[in-house]
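Two quick folds needed for the group meeting slides. Do the first one here.
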Amino acid sequence: MSKEIFDVILLDMNFSAGLSIWNEGLFWLKRILESDPQAIVVMITAYGDIELAVKAIKEGVADFIHKSWDEEKILSTLLAASQLRQSKLEIKKLKNKQEHLMEESSVGYDLCGCLSPAMLQVMEMVDKVARTDANILILGENGTGKEVLAREIHKKSLRRNEIFVSVDLGSLSGSLFGSEIFGYAKGAFTDARQDKPGRISGCYFRTGTCRN
């Protein structure tokens, strides 16, 4: 595994004849997952002990195959495991992209480390509200740092690992507000030829309902 990357690993639970305790298989399962946390391991065994199966699942097994000559069953299990591997890699890729976007989008928005009584009061308020689900309205003239403060709240919130989405509502007309913010589903109106996700929603709206 230090030289090759495998989509699916078919691992025997017992290497020694006559054993049924799965220690060998579980040992190598841990070693495999240490080497590649995204690895998909399918265990093959002649023993159907439920307790050991539960233990193996907790350790990270994707599926089981009982030793047999049912080639169709083996093939379908391995194909499903291969698809799971691709899904895990795609999720990892998307998470990496999201982390990169978050880093890039936060450049230039760091809050200054002022120690004035006014700023200390502001930062105390940020710490109080950041971990709540309260709706927060920040008021101030242009250039006073409303977005910088909003980003600081986001950094300290429970959603810090999600992307901060900035929307200039002044640039949106009333007729486009709903579709831009919440998105829409294909066929929701005449020109809706395909699903369009909203800027602040992972849903597609059709006549007031949300479809994930």
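Then this one, please, same format:
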Amino acid sequence: MLLVGDAAGLVSPLTAGGIHTALESGRASAVALTAALVCDTGAAMTVTIDVPQFRIKRLLRKAFDVFQNDWLFDVLLSTGALSATARLTYFHRRGLLSSSAWKDLLRR
């Protein structure tokens, strides 16, 4: 069995981050399999390719989990300005860029 790219978990389903690594893993797998098939003796084969460890990326994610703080965002969520922006953006039928939406907001 061979897993490369998205099947191997190299691509984030939310951001598509890692797509270059996924493509590279597919290319490296094709090269390794071609080389193995050229030397095929009929016996079982094991082909190993280099897989990135993402040490720095994992360290940065861990640091973000530990040190990231939402207090400022939480404060902003409770302000009238953010509430008004949310009403305009999400609940007004014409949206944030509509002059009628702003008129409706200012009437309140």
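Slide caption for protein two: The chain has two domains: 5-67, 71-107.
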